[in-house]
Specification:
By secondary structure, this protein is α+β, with helices and mostly antiparallel strands. The protein is 21% helix and 49% strand. The radius of gyration is 26 Å and the shape is elongated. Its main location: membrane.
């Protein structure tokens, strides 16, 4: 008694479909296990030592806190390697106001860390046009600053002892931040941060 060709075709198609589904499932499980997303960055606080814009010489000092959110469930991030520190800068238009460094640290998966940095510049001579622009912006309570952060980033698949190194990249963060005044109690009016990852 010969088998039904139609039934045989249905069985072959069903087996092929099941095999495709299984392969796809394995692929996405592997992708989930070994894929990571960059952290989310935001300026948490920005305190500015009062700048006397009537003086020709300034000594800027900033206290900066950046909140770093790691949304990954399986991956942690190691910022900096050994004694190599990450750098942070604050600019106003084309003028570099201050710069500083943050020490290496490890961020656990599914974690929010706050990176605190003191930024200084010993002597700053502002041009007349930059000074006038700063004074005008402060009167309007809309001073646009650019906060930059750069660091090496070790991507660690989480495990005992902080995880095993998975990938080493460089991360660059640029935040456009608007504050209301150049004083210790300055408030952040608005901000927008972009992250760039370099292999």
């Amino acid at each position: 008694m010969s088998s039904n060709p139609t039934m045989r075709s249905i069985l072959v198609i069903s087996c092929f479909f099941c095999l495709c589904c299984l392969t796809t499932l394995i692929y996405f499980c592997h992708l989930y296990e070994y894929s990571w997303t960059p952290p989310i960055y935001a300026v948490h606080r920005l305190s500015i030592d009062e700048l006397n814009l009537s003086s020709p010489t300034l000594w800027p000092k900033f206290e900066l806190q950046i909140a770093v959110k790691n949304q990954n469930k399986l991956f942690g991030f190691s910022y900096g390697t050994g004694s190599k520190r990450g750098s942070t800068t604050i600019r106003y238009s084309s003028v570099s106001l201050a710069y500083g460094f943050h020490n290496p640290f490890y961020q656990e998966p599914d974690n929010v860390a706050v990176v605190q940095t003191e930024l200084l510049r010993q002597i700053l001579l502002l041009s007349d046009s930059a000074r006038r622009s700063l004074v005008s912006d402060e009167r309007r309570s809309t001073i646009a600053l650019q906060v930059g952060m750069a660091s090496t980033l070790g991507v660690m698949r989480h495990g005992g002892g902080g995880g095993d190194e998975f990938q080493m990249v460089s991360v660059g963060v640029r935040c456009e931040v608007v504050v209301d005044r150049l004083k210790p109690d300055s408030k952040i009016v608005s901000q927008s941060c972009k992250v760039s990852i370099y292999e």
